[in-house]
Amino acid sequence: MTRSLPILAALAFSLVLGGCGNRSIGNKIDDQFLGPDVSTAIERAHADLTSPTSHIGVTSYNGVVLLAGQTPRAELKEKAEQAARSVQGVKKVHNELQVLQPTSALARSNDALMTTKIKTQMLADASVPSTRIKVVTENGIVYLLGLVNQKEAASATGVVQGVSGVQKIVKLFQYTN
């Protein structure tokens, strides 16, 4: 019973958020499992993808998968993408892996802080549907995923532009209009 408690809590949390946004509860639950499934497929694709020479973050939203991070060789970048595409439920893969040595712990901390600042400002801005936008920051590059219309995308992008330290903004939105 104690093992199923976290699963029930996650399901309850998903149901509470069900009213937020225009995605179905099923899509939200699928995304919760899709990221770990993709990560597992990448781990199995090549040992160097899980070694300290690579840092790969996997994010999914509505079946769209973002691979962000660093890997030392172009062949590994391609293997990671192939592995991600092989997972059932993946509709599209955005392979934004950089062929570089992994970022430092300090750079990752700065990225996490930047993501927090962006999300906080999005929550404060009524024109941004923050519950329908995922923000991922990797090496100063901000990736925006979500199901939005053009006006909402522009508002979200405007918020990100106002945050110091942002090197680049990559919009990976699915547009509703």
TrEMBL record:
Matches recorded under InterPro entries? BON_dom (IPR007055), Lipoprotein_DolP (IPR051686), Transpt-assoc_nodulatn_dom_bac (IPR014004)
Q: State the Pfam families in the record.
A: BON
Tell me yes or no: is Signal among this UniProt entry's keywords: yes
Which keywords describe this protein according to UniProt? Signal
Which part of the chain is the BON domain? Answer: 30-101, 110-177
Q: Which domain of life is it from?
A: Bacteria
Q: Which PROSITE patterns match?
A: BON (PS50914), PROKAR_LIPOPROTEIN (PS51257)
The answer to keyword Signal applying to this record is yes
Its name, as the record gives it, is BON domain-containing protein
